[in-house]
Design brief:
This protein is an alpha+beta fold and 168 residues long. The chain folds into 2 domains: 26-70; 75-164, no CATH class. The protein is built from 4 helices and 10 strands; from the N terminus they run E-E-E-H-H-E-E-E-E-H-E-E-E-H. The termini are close together.
C-alpha cells in the first residue's frame, strides 16, 4: 500500500481549504464590564460631575477597541496557490516537511522555554493549542500557528502536502 506522509493511498479525503477567524472569547467581554465599572467608580470619589461618567465611557471605549483589535485575526490555507496565510505573512506549503497538531502543554513549551527566536509564532493569548510546521527553508526553522482547531488545520495542510508529492 502506498503512503504519503502517513496517509494510506496518498490522498486524504476532504477539502483542502481552511479558514478560521480568531475572535476574543465572550468571557473576556464579560470580564471587561466589571473592570470598567470598578475603575470608573474610583473617579466618583475624587471628581465632580460630569467627569466620572465621561471617564467610564472612555474606559469602556478603550476596552472595546482593545478587544476588537485582539479579535481581528485570521488564518487561511488556500488550495489554489498552496499557501498558508497567518498574521500578514504567507508560507509556501512546498517548504513544509512536517506538520503536527499540538496540545496545550506542547504549545506552552514552544511559546516559552523551548522557543526558537528565529521561528515565526502567530498566536493570541486566548489560544491554548497550535499547529507546528517544520520547514526546509534555511532561515526560519518552523511556524507555530495558534488555532482553536489544530487537528483540522493540520489535516488540511497534510492534504495539500499529499497532493504536491508524487506517490511512489
Amino acid at each position: 500500500m502506498n503512503t504519503v506522509r502517513g496517509v494510506p493511498g496518498g490522498r486524504p479525503p476532504g477539502p483542502a481549504h481552511y479558514r478560521e477567524r480568531l475572535r476574543v472569547p465572550v468571557a473576556w467581554w464579560l470580564l471587561a464590564l466589571p473592570v470598567v465599572l470598578v475603575l470608573g467608580a474610583e473617579f466618583y470619589e475624587v471628581l465632580s460631575s460630569p467627569w466620572p461618567p465621561v471617564i467610564i465611557a472612555g474606559f469602556a471605549a478603550a476596552c472595546a477597541v482593545l478587544l476588537i483589535l485582539l479579535g481581528r485575526a485570521e488564518i487561511e490555507v488556500d488550495v489554489r496557490d498552496g499557501t498558508l496565510k497567518a498574521g500578514g505573512k504567507t508560507l509556501r506549503l512546498a517548504t513544509v516537511n512536517n506538520v503536527v497538531a499540538l496540545d496545550e502543554r506542547q504549545t506552552a513549551r514552544l511559546r516559552g522555554p523551548s522557543a526558537d527566536p528565529t521561528a515565526y509564532l502567530y498566536s493570541r493569548p486566548y489560544l491554548k493549542r497550535s499547529v507546528y510546521l517544520a520547514l526546509d527553508d534555511g532561515g526560519v526553522p518552523y511556524w507555530l500557528i495558534g488555532t482553536r482547531h489544530p487537528a483540522e488545520l493540520a489535516a488540511v495542510v497534510e492534504r495539500l502536502l499529499a497532493r504536491e508529492e508524487p506517490v511512489a
